[in-house]
Design goal:
Layout lengths: L2 H17 L4 H16 L3 H15 L5 H15 L2 H12 L6 H14 L5 H18 L4 H12 L9 H9 L4 H7 L1 H21 L14 H11 L1 H15 L5 H18 L5 H35 L1 H12 L3 H16 L4 H18 L4 H15 L7 H9 L6 H24 L2 H10 L1
Helix pairs in contact: 1-2, 2-3, 2-15, 3-15, 4-9, 4-14, 4-15, 5-6, 5-12, 6-7, 6-8, 6-11, 7-8, 7-20, 8-21, 9-10, 9-19, 10-22, 11-21, 13-14, 15-18, 16-18, 17-18, 17-19, 18-19, 19-21, 20-21
Amino acid sequence: MEWYWALTLMMGGFVFLLLLGLPVAFSFLAINIVGAWIFLGGHAGEMQMVRNASVAVTTFVLIPIALFVLMGEVLFQTGVAIKAVDAIDILITKVPGRLSIVAIVGGTIFAALSGSSAANTALLGSTLMPEMRKRGYHSSMAMGPILGAGGLAVLIPPSGLAVLLASLGEISVSDLLIAGILPGLLMAVLYFVYVIGLSYLKPDLAPAYEVVDRTAWERWKPFLIYVVPLFSLFVIVVGSILAGFASPTESAGLGALGAIIIALCYRALSWQNLKKSLFETAKTTILILFIASASITFSQILLFSGATQGLLNIVKMMELSPSMLVVSMLLVLFFLGCFMDPVSMMLITLPFYIPLAQAAGIDLVWFALLMLIMLEVSFTTPPFGLILFVMKAIAPPDITLKDVCLAALPFVGIALLTVAIIFFFPQVALWLPGMLE
């Protein structure tokens, strides 16, 4: 079979199963069974699928995903994260678009503790949206900053998606985790500037209101009690990697243990919410490992069928410069992000993108970081962005999905601006990883 027919069978079959409503993981499994039988040698190919699944679930570098998820779930289920957001709300007083700024600051902090964009959005939306509506905030100023800050969990470590991308792309996990820090903070600053600027130009979008008058100590005390201790988790996870004391897996274990200890110190941990945290962690981790095992087989099928090499040959014939190659690949990701979830996008494109980037001599950490931001953008690109639906679920009934999408668009634009900055100034992403060398 010619390579282009093999590619059509695999990609077309996968998309067809998705259109039938089959979940991503099972769509990959089904098309892999067909592809393995045809291209990997019948029964021998099916046995290779089993071996791939065994390799995926026993891969040491994927362990941080479960531990990072557990870390965020403990903080979320015990209510410690909610107290931190309330403390930030008390601390920030007289600034334009105050509650929107609280959402950005709170979202940035929780992104460094969670790794889950959906959890980040749900937390901020459920705690801040009611007050924003009460204060007369326009839907764009109420939901937009929450959606933007929610997506930061993809970039700022700990990020399960970054670990998965690095593992599947055979890139240094620690380098990619560290590379996301400055771009994530840059994006948060750009959100901050946008909200304050818009609040000055159009104050009716975020009406000012009297804040309870508190002394400096009354404002700082909750922050010192409920927020500062959480920074210790970020220091443990990121600092141990930067200092070379721990691998990403070891630092993730320290972070998860630290989250449990902090919850105990606040007397917020119970058997019930611990079981809930473990159950939610298990659900997320099993899904990710299932997809990772399918991805290994999918890549092998494309390789053995000649599809990967065929596409590489076509790209080489086009004689694109490395910069144009990166731009074209990012545009494909942006298009896919309008219709697919980030994990599906990653699994479909990585088998092609990594060989192309290597052949063109592109720095893989820099390229993977750009991919991560585009995956983050897909969370908020209409019509199928995941956290758009999370926001719709927690928003008041009069808020339509169209309102949610319109609120997200400026923050999608800011994320794309961040991509452009990193594209033209790679050291924004590569400076911190360079310190590890």
